[in-house]
Specification:
The structure is a homodimer of 595-residue chains. Chain A is an alpha+beta fold and 595 residues long. Chain A has 19 helices and 28 strands. Helices cover 32% and strands 21% of the residues of chain A. A six-stranded mixed sheet of chain A has the order 4-3-2-1-5-6.
Chain lengths: 595, 595
């Protein structure tokens, strides 16, 4: 008898329930970007640790669907005798089922882990989808990590800028305008914003995994594990009806009769829509209004971003000045700094800053060819040295009490090749081309994306990621709904939104370049908007062909650097000050400029 | 008893048929941009002559829906005692009906004049839509112009570049790939392209009003008035089954049983879908594949565009040199040139050119504030003089045997104000910003549109029209499906497509500026595209602030002008040559440049 594996155990469990197969997505009920270990069934089942994927387990085959980023990693992490690797987008699982399985096969799925668009596609695949009312992994995952129970903390009004009561009242009005009786909120960052609370279930994601049911008078029922509320003074919970997360579906069914209930079209689990329909309610698929309310920052939040970026800028400058001192000396001494050394030192500098809580995402500290993988994270096995003649890329940020930061700098150590200079200049010109733009209020992200690519396009090059994403206010580092990317983003960009600008270039097995500032969208001339940088970090110009910059680009760089110098020089450590002055010198004083 | 009007006659006719109202769109069965006088029921009924609109005639009210361009003109042309003017987009007719009419009112419409999206919207408006099988205007429009019967002519293979037989075979394969039995073609330019014929039903629109039914083996049934085919040698019609246009619906119904039939989602009349469904067929709403096949030009067509643009460039230079000689002299003598004088002279120069057939659209010859209306056409009543200190805008083109041209130049006569110079420079920089771009194959028009606006955005300004449209090959001046505009255009831009680049700026009651080149999309670096100008006309730099141009912009202008000079100087009339040399001089030789 062969040793049991998670896969064989699952097959056995399915068979005993009369199922021919089951879908196991890398997802939790909140469609979180980072899910808790408790929820990572896909990793338990397959060994694959990437952040997106889906397994289809059948009795005689098992398939793992992952996107282009993860084709290599998935083959490396899974047992090829057990799992076939397929492409998540080029060959969607619904299409695979339609083409390869006899019609009517009974395929189980957990309806709390599936959104409506996935469900509709699978509905048309010819199989019989069986919604499971139990979690088959409970029986087979013996050392399963416990569900997260991170404490919830308060976000006081002097930081959030608006009382939860007025947020709830405003939301109620919006729901009435939409002709909706209830809203079911399943995105924890929307709950966090609405209730002025923050969570700690998953590191770097300060949101409470939980659900909310909001009536169109603003009344809130919060489905949250009470253990998480130990630190919350009862007075903050006074107008909130607390319930267990497991009660959500029954409650939705209970209140549904004759009601119109808004479920987020992209994120709500189909289980909720089943419950609403079972209770005689009408499901109204729409984006959650909270997503837009939250993305439009108020003045207090905007001030918070400025404060935490000042702190983060000090940490960056102290760190970069240290790095510029240490890296050449260590390389020459034969014990060069490594990616992990550097990110530890950077974290130490951040931890000195007022209001710093934790990193806002796993730092990308990437030397040489490691930076060519744009989602690289250093491990002891990959930990590369920072050597002369190469680029070092650092993409990192902090969660602070009053905001969230995210920035990237690419540093040229020693003399880099003419080709590296050409590519660095193209990325820099893309960054400048977009950040200097004035654009009409309401312009959509996809209309602006190409400005950041023009410099690379001119060389016949491009980068395969978006140009900018929203950033939460002490919330998610990738906040919906605003994006600048090639893909259409239909939402109007307006003053008071926060977004990143981060063009890059990646030459496989050689190097990676990215320059990223976080910006606030501000008013420009009447009817127009501009970007105002929150990020306060000198931009390395050593690898830039300065004679290729336009007057407008030079003027932006000089004015930005002067500002960075002015606000940071009183705050950085004394040893860092000379480096700060050098790094923020006007373009015309540098080598390589005309005249 | 009051005198009868078209409106009262129509109401009487509707009443006798038991209808409470009727929809009368400005449309023909082909959704033509320019419809024949025979088809312009809206103008007969209301007096409104604009190119888009819709009347809703009820027994006690009559409403005319027109878009923003036509709000003023509609009030001017219609009797306000008879017609209320509404906004076509802000208050769609379906919404108006839903909010203002009792449910179940019987509203007639002609299903050959309505496309599916309009029909679906009206279906949900609460009225009872009654598809009319007769034309109520036959009885009330006594002096109605006859349907057009313009002769069809051939487009020989040395000009079309591909035999109709291979086009039909390729189309058959595409239909099979789509799993379709038949395609119903209702867009005359698609028929013209497929059959290598050109029509003459409506001036400047060289397409034969007709329909086609194409089987998935490439066999064609052509529903066309045989009178139009008098000049076509029978051998060209050998493999085509000819039928009367009036036979289309019966034939569609006849062949439909058990078949899947492709109808163009945006342009096919709902009458055709009714016929297919009545015959037991399945309607497959998709873009007509011919739209894409036609837009991807072959090498012979591309060569034709180059040839006719050379001819058109000679006509433009002869014309502009004449204008630059005459306008100041005539203004000084007190009998200045007028818009109509100038466009007549321009036409005379075009008529001298080899292969010129007719104008490709009604010339926009606009002096001073008339040019602020971007769709202005001069009439004796509006005919303005060309005076010093002003801009003169000319947007015109020709149908040539081997292609279609479309270009705009704005000329600065005498000294123009600093503000005019600022605006002209912003438009010029937008034009240059886009035309110098290299972009990845498959980029979509809305991703590039903003490059043409950046110069204006920088001043807090914009223009309210698209940036570029496709141009047919001796076909429609606005050819589907490619567009560069703010609005999403999902179709990938690829080498071999023809498009315009035409940013502008319009200051109401003052002046209008537009600079337009027609371009071919060509291969750039591997995987990338560039624009190559077809248009060969000097760009007026007298109003440009040359010191604001970048090196790249200057390099493009100099190289473009040198090319224009080289290819045109041997061909233009002797008197025009000195002006051509001056107008194509390198930027650095001009006043106002640095150094």
């Amino acid at each position: 008898m062969a040793a049991s594996t998670p896969l064989s155990d699952l097959r056995h469990a399915l068979l005993s329930r009369g199922l021919e197969g089951m879908l196991v997505p890398r997802a939790d009920a909140h469609q979180s970007e980072d899910c808790a270990p408790h929820d990572n069934k896909l990793a338990f089942l397959t060994g694959f640790t990437g952040s997106a994927g889906l397994a289809l387990v059948l009795q005689d085959r098992a398939l793992l669907f992952v996107d282009g980023r993860y084709q290599v990693q998935a083959r490396h992490e899974t047992d090829s005798a057990l799992f076939e690797i397929h492409h998540l987008h080029d060959e969607p699982v619904a299409e695979w089922i339609a083409q390869n399985l006899p019609a009517g096969q009974r395929i189980g799925f957990e309806p709390m882990l599936m959104v409506n668009s996935q469900y509709q596609a699978l509905q048309n695949s010819g199989c019989e989808l069986v919604a499971l009312s139990y979690d088959p992994f409970d029986a087979i995952w013996h050392d399963r990590p416990a569900p997260p129970q991170g404490p919830v903390s308060l976000m006081p009004p002097d930081i959030s800028g608006e009382l939860t009561t007025t947020k709830r009242a405003r939301l109620g009005v919006k729901l009435q305008e939409l002709g909706v009786d209830y809203l079911v909120v399943t995105q924890p960052d929307n709950i966090a914003w609405l209730l002025n609370m923050r969570g700690s279930d998953v590191p770097m994601n300060p949101v409470p995994h939980s659900f909310a049911l909001v009536k169109n008078n603003g009344a809130v029922e919060w489905f949250v594990d009470p253990v998480k509320l130990t630190l919350v003074p009862p007075v903050w919970l006074m107008d909130i009806s607390l319930k267990a997360p497991s009660a959500l579906l029954a409650r939705c069914q209970e209140i549904a009769a004759g009601k119109r209930i808004l479920l987020d079209a992209d994120n709500a689990p189909v289980a909720v829509s089943f419950a609403v329909e079972a209770g005689g309610g009408e499901v109204f698929w729409q984006p959650d209004p909270l997503t837009f309310m939250k993305a439009q920052k108020n003045l207090t939040e905007l001030e918070g971003y400025r404060h935490c970026h000042l702190q983060d800028g000090v940490a960056w400058v102290n760190f970069l000045a240290w790095l510029e001192r240490e890296a050449p000396a260590r390389a020459q001494s034969g014990t060069p700094l490594t990616e992990l050394d550097v990110q530890a030192q950077q974290l130490a500098y951040r931890q000195q800053r007022e209001g710093f809580l934790e990193q806002s995402f796993a730092t990308i500290s990437a030397a040489g060819s490691n930076a060519a993988m744009c989602h690289y994270h250093a491990t002891p096995a990959t930990n590369a040295a920072i050597m002369p003649g190469s680029f070092y890329l650092n993409d990192s940020g902090g969660q602070y009490v009053n905001g969230t930061t995210d920035a990237t700098r690419t540093l040229a150590f020693g003399d880099v090749s003419p080709e590296m200079r050409r590519h660095y200049t193209a990325v820099l010109k893309g960054f400048l081309g977009l950040i200097t733009l004035q654009f009409p209020k309401g312009t959509q992200g996809h209309q602006l994306d190409a400005f950041a690519r023009r410099g690379l396009w001119e060389l016949g090059l491009d980068y395969d990621h978006g140009t900018g994403h929203g950033v939460g206010h002490r919330l998610q580092i990738h906040e919906q709904p605003y994006r600048m990317a090639k893909k259409v983003n239909p939402w109007p960009m307006l003053p008071g939104q926060i977004i990143t600008i981060e063009p890059g270039y990646y030459l496989a097995d050689n190097y990676g370049i990215r320059i990223e500032n976080q910006v606030e969208i501000i008013f420009g001339m009447p009817g127009f908007c501009r970007f105002s940088s929150l990020t306060l970090i000198p931009i390395d110009l050593r690898a830039a062909e300065l004679h290729l910059l336009t007057e407008q680009e030079v003027a932006w760089l000089d004015s930005y650097h002067l500002h960075v110098r002015d606000v940071l020089s009183p705050l950085v450590e004394a040893e860092a000050r000379p480096w700060l002055f050098e790094a923020t010198a006007p373009v015309h004083t540098r080598a390589g400029t005309p005249g």
